[in-house]
């Protein structure tokens, strides 16, 4: 009989991935499916039931052995409602547009923008569940009564019949008090969502036993544990082997800079407010394995900017990468140009290889600002650990080496997010003492292009 495995499932904006790991921490199977998206004049929508079906397909295709536990991670805000008839077939507005801005403005007028910011650690914003879901209900009337669950909670419900949420993902609702660990029910109701309840938040590593035909069809062992690991970027940090005292840089569609804070002494409200006052793009979440606070700086959406750039370019990504000149500390692109590209608007100037290189350089220099802030807030003095799909770009790697942090390590763990949620799931069933102790993690210090290329090649 085949040995048992733990499986990690990652709901991403571009792809949905499932990976199986053995007790030695080795990835033994990987499957990926494109994330279904409905393109419309008003913006992109994620059809939740289609996303779940894609995840089912990916897990079923693994065929790596009996599944002892499943860990789940996702992009955060997307989800649907559990009704008496099951999951509602909701098309959820994508997090990366401004739909729901009117909801945010109305709630800020009523409760105070600063008050909401300080309680939610700046997670009350247009990208949050409360604004997107309220917009969908007000504009389409499509949100039925029931309990809201994110993508992870929806799949967990399908596999277990239970409804719950994890605290890091709860912060992305925009109505979760980070320090008090409670929902701001009055703001949720005021958004027009009084007919929808919010799933109860459980401790890190909480899981429920799988049951039913779907679980069996996906290869889950009887009673296999299903765990909601958390928000994708922090979960990927865990999967990359990042610890307190280090900085995590996830180079992808949305490039997040993350640094966990020490747990002793605990973060106070006054300290949280003071940190939030330092930068408008600084938020705080919770470390997936322990629930400790962590700083997240997320001004950057390089994947969106690159997509806009490529839409107006005559050359493909590889040709632009190959033709770009050496990194420059003074790129022509401005912060306004980056903002325009991230929003899908064209920046001024050509779309040639030189401009492509400038785009890489501008994002590296911007990431440096976020890293300095994350270190100041957390006290982190260790290495910067790089991961993410952006490492596949030779030109972006060169810019990181030439313009980026002094001490860089590349995580050679392929699919850090799936590994992170598998680590949390494995720890929950006693395969290892903690998620960070999952064997098999490797990180390589890099100081040259040759070392960087070798480290990135090891992740393939």
TrEMBL record:
Residues 6-239 form the Carbohydrate kinase FGGY N-terminal domain. One of its GO terms (biological process) is D-xylose metabolic process. Keywords: Carbohydrate metabolism, Kinase, Transferase, Xylose metabolism. GO terms for molecular function: kinase activity. Belongs to the FGGY kinase family. This is Xylulose kinase.
